[in-house]
Design a protein that fits this description.
heterotrimer, A mainly alpha (101), B mainly alpha (483), C mainly alpha (662), A: mainly alpha, Helix Hairpins, 0% strand, C: 662 residues, mainly alpha, two-stranded antiparallel sheet, 27 helices, 4 strands, disordered N terminus
């Protein structure tokens, strides 16, 4: 029997993987975008799980909104990535350090 | 509950949305030499929205869209200030945009979209609307930063802001999901009523959610240690975008902070008070100290923002009506000063030269004495020198901390770091009035810019002499929400 | 309806204050964009508006018996119950002062057109004198101590600017520095006094303070551990120290003679008619406080007597036309102070008013002579000028007669009232004071007529070039002289009955019944004519006559005698010439000592300890620290994300531990 806790733990794990991915990865920016998606999916899972166990539909509605926004976010992220690549000929996270101090 | 919601309270938002679409279409069919029409339409939209918001002003709270949207004095006032600030921002940045080939319809559309996002945030009465507003604002900002395609650092700034911002909104949503799980609702008003019963049984879940939400809000405000994006983004973004990011969104962020912590989760204040104390002290310390070492004015102002955010948090953490209104007063005050300060950077920029170094201000008193005085007013005000506006903001916040929260030690720390902060503000004044100019190029100051800058400076001075005018409105707005 | 009336009135008072300020701003800040004519037109119109409205207000109060107005128009801040605000307290005292200030100021403005005609700082000068008028009005119209202090300081500042107006002259720089420093000494006492008022009464509003003053008569303060001082006495003494500096009472008088370095119009405006009267006015305004402290009153009485007598003596040996008048100002201020000490506030204020007119007249007439003499001020090089400058001569003579108290002239009524009041006073020091001011009458008459004879009579002693060019000055100079001569003659007779012996000031001045010397005098007052007639039988009149006769004998009949006398009385003459060595003592003991201490503190204390260790040290430390920790901002995205995670984790641990422990 799956309980709410199972879902929450799974979502928590996904969240952690996403967050860890952002600061452990030092190579490719595209991986960062994937990590962001992972975080959002973890959140969605959380909402749906709660929604189901509370018997309240609002959480699921919110998930639709989040999915939509996530799509827009991915679009903007990729667009910035393209601009960045054009300017630098590189999408390496390590080289993104001209602004500092 | 009727199916069609009452649209009246959201008239301003709807107006801005429609106008954004119109500008998008009009711009497509306008030849290059009539590009200014989009600019004028944008300014017109802001003025129109201001009129609508004033017209809709009520002393009551009107809730619509199934309890997800609220129109109350707080929302009306903050929106009004957002329009005025953005209006000034546009005037300041027009010249810069033209010279950097950014004077395009897309820019104005994105700007209006972010204004719309801010409006929704300010009026949000549920997690859904809050999140949507936030994302609308953020996504537009990312795009605006990346728009200047010649600049080397702009895409980097945009990328950093984007990744960190997306992560922060992920954290926000995660926190929201926890609160949702504990209280079973997404509406702020219901959360506030439900939370009292659930506090005993779900305290762990609530605390978890609370921390995540605070982290996200702190990110948006730029509080230490979630401030790392601020200097890089302010520095890397084109100055015309920096002035925008540095001003109006702070008001929206304050609204977000207030709606979430006070409107929604005030019952948990014993928990969030301690967190905010830590964030406030760190912000004031890090902001003021690192600002001293800066040579780039945009970066310096970015760190000064971080320090000011510490003060804004001080007002909120005193958990009292006067503290909240002091905080609101501080936010508005800061926005007015920041617009002026960044406006001066734009004013000094000319073709092929962005006056970004602090040393570019050297000798300004001989090149443009009037504007040197204006900059002096902004700097004195930011430093908190009486009788300028910034002094009152600091005083009110400190008073709330001492009187309401009874934390004299915290006020002492705040004063200590403000004194350190005075150093870098005064350095600019010293450069302007006592050093020789390095740049002898004639300044081209458009009339609109000159007039706006003068009004901006005089407002800082006059509101400093009559702080009661603004304060009364702040107190009214906050009192209304608290009841 | 009544509210409406008050509204309307307040706008009048605002206009009175702001009109000169606007003039000052236009002539000063925008001076670059306007012509010289514009500059004087703007400022004169401003002051004229102010003068006309002041007259109107005076009419309301004097003839229509309007009730006192006490209104706050702007609150700057409220801190811990203390209100910092701008407001006006208008009663008969204020109304009278307003007329005096604005009228004299207006005359000086007009006169300046002629006097400063060729000066390159023309617009700056007009801006300053208008600013001065504004400051003085703020001072006298204040209804609270903060505004009083603002006006007090603003007046001091503008006088500093004006004394040093010719800032290329070294003597002018020295003089304005001196004025500034001496006034700082007084301000030190003054602000301490205000602070003590705030501490004792927890309010800075006149009305609150006066109303509560009687409650504090018994309270004491321990200035030194174990001693008990009456709080009211300490307050009064401290406030009076401020008045001593501003109204040039010994020993803080040293700045006033030197301030004659400034152009003559400001000598008339500031150092005769208005600024120096600020101290007198302040004491009269604070009468409800001073009345409660006999110690302070006695102190005031003695200081005034010393000033009146000894400063007059100095006038005898001076050879600079303006300095003689300056010393006479000092001496007359001494008279006013004596009257304050004797609780004859009304007589003091009355003398202040008459003095303002005739002293402004004397200064302006002296200025007229100076113009004609091509800025030669030494009276030994003048003589016989009456033939060349009839209007200046007549008006100067009228001023002199008023000054020495010739029966019937303005000065007579005020000075005689003071002398009688002191005679009637019961204070312990009253007898000495009476003697001092009686002798003062002789001295005043002597030096005044010495000046008059040397300048206007006798053989011309100037060089041929100047003599050939001597002629009457233009109308802008002579018209103010004539206009000032009228009140100098008449104003005493017009107002003496009401102001001194009547109850003109009403509640504006508070006098305890046991101190009320003027009320005793009033019983013997039977009209102006009687007063004049009575004076012929009294001592002051004969002393005055003796003074005139001696001057006549020494300088007209036997002009070689003064030289012989001064050699006979070499020591006295030397002491007088050196002004009792006040300046030397000040510059060696106080200034010299302070300089040495200052040099030591600056070399060791400031440069090394404070600057070196604390200021620069801490600044360096912070800057160093800043340059280190800015490297936290490494520029790497993953560091930023990591910092956020770290923050999140810390906060989570922090909160969860507290939640779980509950």
């Amino acid at each position: 029997m799956l309980t709410l806790t199972h879902f929450l733990v799974l979502a928590g794990l996904l969240m952690s993987i996403g967050l860890a991915g952002i600061f452990i990865n030092r190579k490719n920016i595209i991986i960062l975008l994937m990590c962001v998606e992972l975080i959002l999916l973890a959140v969605n899972l959380n909402f749906i799980a709660f929604s189901h166990y509370l018997g309240n539909v609002e959480g699921q509605i919110f998930v639709f909104f989040i999915l939509t926004v996530a799509a827009a976010e991915a679009a903007i992220g990729l667009a910035i990535l393209v601009v960045l690549f054009r300017r630098r000929q590189s999408i390496n996270v390590d080289e993104l350090d001209s602004l500092k101090g | 509950m009727s199916v069609t919601p009452d649209l009246l309270p959201a008239t301003a938002e709807i107006f801005v949305l429609i106008m954004t679409c119109i500008i998008l279409v009009v711009d497509t069919f306008t030849p290059e030499k009539y590009r200014a029409s989009s600019y004028i339409l944008t300014q017109g939209t802001l003025l129109g929205a201001l009129l609508i918001t004033i017209g809709l002003y009520t002393e009551q709270s009107i809730v619509t869209f199934h309890n997800t949207f609220i129109l109350d004095p707080l929302a009306s006032m903050l929106k009004g200030i957002i329009y005025i600030v953005v209006f000034a921002v546009l005037i300041y940045s027009k010249h810069f945009l033209q010279q950097h080939k950014m004077f395009k319809g897309e820019y104005f559309v994105l700007m209006l979209a972010s204004v719309l996002g801010m409006m929704v945030m300010v009026s949000a009465y549920s997690f859904v609307t809050l999140y949507l507003g936030l994302e609308l604002l953020s996504l537009s900002l990312y795009a605006m930063i990346a728009m200047q395609d010649q600049a080397k650092s702009a895409p980097e700034a945009a990328m950093k802001y984007f990744v960190l911002g997306a992560m922060a909104s992920g954290l926000l949503l995660y926190g929201m999901s926890m609160i949702y799980g504990a209280t079973g609702t997404l509406h702020l008003a219901e959360i506030q009523t439900n939370i009292l019963d659930k506090f005993e049984t779900h305290s762990l879940l609530l605390s978890f959610g609370l921390v995540f939400i605070i982290v996200a809000v702190a990110f948006k405000l730029g509080a230490v240690p979630f401030h790392m994006w601020v200097p890089d983004v302010y520095h890397g973004a084109p100055t015309a975008v920096t002035i925008f990011i540095g001003s109006a969104p702070k008001i929206a962020a304050f609204a977000m902070l207030f709606r979430l912590l006070v409107d929604g989760l005030e019952s948990l204040h014993t928990s969030w008070q301690d967190i905010l104390i830590i964030l406030a002290i760190l912000s004031m310390a890090v902001g003021n100290i690192i600002a001293i070492a800066q040579t780039n004015i945009k970066r310096m102002l970015a760190y000064s923002t971080v320090a000011h955010v510490g003060f804004i948090l001080l007002g909120i953490l005193s958990v009292s009506q006067s503290g909240y209104s002091a905080s609101m007063f501080y936010t508005i005050t800061y926005t007015i000063m920041a617009v002026g300060g960044f406006g001066m950077v734009l004013l000094l920029s000319h073709k092929g030269f962005d006056a970004e170094r602090i040393s570019d201000f050297k000798g300004l008193s001989t090149r443009a004495p009037w504007f040197a005085v204006m900059m002096m007013i902004f700097m004195f005000s930011m430093a908190g020198v009486p009788p300028f506006l910034g002094f009152w903001a600091k005083l009110l916040v400190l008073k709330a901390v001492v009187v309401e929260a009874d934390m004299v030690w915290l006020a002492a720390i705040a004063v200590f770091f403000s004194i350190i902060g005075i150093f870098y503000y005064l350095r600019i004044i010293k450069f302007m009035f006592f050093d020789k100019a390095e740049d002898s190029e004639h300044l081209t100051i458009t009339q609109g810019m000159a007039v706006t800058m003068s009004i901006n400076g005089v407002v800082v001075l006059l509101l400093g002499l009559y702080p009661g005018i603004l304060l009364t409105y702040c107190v009214q707005a906050i009192t209304h929400v608290i009841q | 309806m009544e509210n409406n009336l008050v509204e309307q009135d307040m706008s009048i008072y605002l206009a009175i204050v702001l009109a000169p300020l606007m003039g000052a701003i236009i002539a000063g800040v925008f001076g670059r964009y306007i012509s010289r004519t514009m500059a004087h037109q703007v400022t004169i119109v401003g002051v004229a508006i102010s003068a006309a409205l002041s007259l109107l207000v005076f009419k309301h109060f004097a003839l229509e018996d309007m009730t006192t107005i006490n209104e706050t128009i702007y609150t700057w801040m409220v801190s811990d119950g203390l209100h910092l605000e701008v407001g006006f307290l208008i009663d008969k005292l204020t109304a009278m002062m307003m007329v005096v200030v604005t009228f004299v100021s207006l005359m000086v403005h007009i006169y300046t057109i002629g006097y400063m005609h060729d000066d390159s700082g023309y617009k700056r000068f007009f801006s300053y004198i208008s600013l001065f008028t504004f400051s003085m009005l703020m001072l006298i119209m204040a209804n609270n101590f903060v505004q009083l202090f603002f006006g007090w300081e603003a007046v001091g500042l503008v006088s500093y600017l004006l004394i040093g107006f010719w800032y290329t002259r070294e003597t002018a720089i020295y003089a304005n520095l001196k004025a500034f420093i001496v006034n700082r000494v007084g301000d030190f006492g003054f602000i301490l006094g205000i602070a003590l008022v705030a501490m004792t009464f927890n309010s800075l509003d006149y009305q609150d303070v006066f109303a509560a003053s009687t409650l504090h008569t018994e309270s004491t303060i321990a200035l030194f551990p174990g001693t008990h001082w009456s709080t009211i006495t300490v307050i009064c003494l401290l406030l009076f120290i401020g008045a001593m500096a501003k109204s040039a009472q010994a020993p803080l008088h040293v700045w006033l003679p030197d301030s004659m370095e400034g152009p003559t119009p400001i000598s008339a405006l500031i150092h005769a008619a208005t600024m120096v009267t600020a101290g007198i006015f302040m004491v009269a305004r604070m009468s409800p406080l001073f009345e409660l402290s006999p110690v302070a009153l006695n102190f005031i009485l003695l200081i005034g007597a010393v000033t009146a007598f000894f400063m007059g003596l100095l006038g005898i040996v001076q050879n600079d036309i303006k300095r003689v008048i300056a010393y006479s100002t000092l001496s007359q201020l001494g008279y006013m102070t004596v009257a304050l000490g004797a609780s004859a506030y009304a007589a003091s204020i009355f003398h202040l008013m008459t003095h303002a007119f005739f002293k402004a007249l004397l200064f302006l007439a002296a200025g007229s002579v100076i113009i004609a003499m091509h800025h030669e001020q030494d009276i030994r090089k003048m003589g016989g000028i009456r033939h060349y400058m009839p209007i200046t001569w007549i008006t100067f003579l009228l001023g002199t007669l008023a000054l020495i108290g010739t029966p019937g002239f303005a000065g007579f009524f005020s000075k005689d009232s003071i002398i009688m009041a002191v005679h009637a006073s019961q204070l312990p020091g009253a007898n000495i004071a009476y003697l001092a001011i009686l002798l003062g009458v002789f001295i005043t008459a002597f030096y005044s007529f010495r000046l008059y004879f040397l300048v206007f009579h006798g053989q011309p002693r100037m060089d041929h070039h100047t003599k050939a060019d001597l002629h009457e000055t233009p109308k802008v100079v002579t018209v103010p002289l004539i206009l000032l001569a009228i009140p100098s003659v008449l104003i005493g007779a017009l107002f003496v009955a009401d102001m001194v012996f009547g109850d003109f000031f009403g509640a504006a001045i508070m006098v305890l019944p046991e101190h009320d010397v003027l009320a005793t005098l009033a019983k013997d007052y039977h009209g102006i004519i009687a007063m004049v007639l009575h004076s012929f039988k009294s001592l002051p009149f004969w002393l005055m006559l003796a003074g005139i006769m001696s001057a006549w004998y020494l300088y007209m009949v036997n002009p070689s005698l003064p030289e012989k006398l001064s050699q006979r009385l070499l020591i006295i003459h030397k002491v007088l010439l050196n002004k009792y060595y006040f300046d030397d003592i000040n510059s060696t003991v106080f200034a010299g000592g302070a300089r040495q201490l200052g040099t030591f503190l600056s070399r060791f204390g400031d440069t090394q300890v404070i600057d070196g260790w604390f200021v620069n040290g801490s600044a360096k430390l912070v800057a160093w620290f800043s340059s280190i920790i800015r490297h936290i901002q490494s520029g790497y995205l993953y560091h930023y994300a990591f910092a956020m995670m770290l923050g999140l984790a810390t906060l989570l641990v922090l909160l969860l531990t507290t939640v779980i422990s509950h």
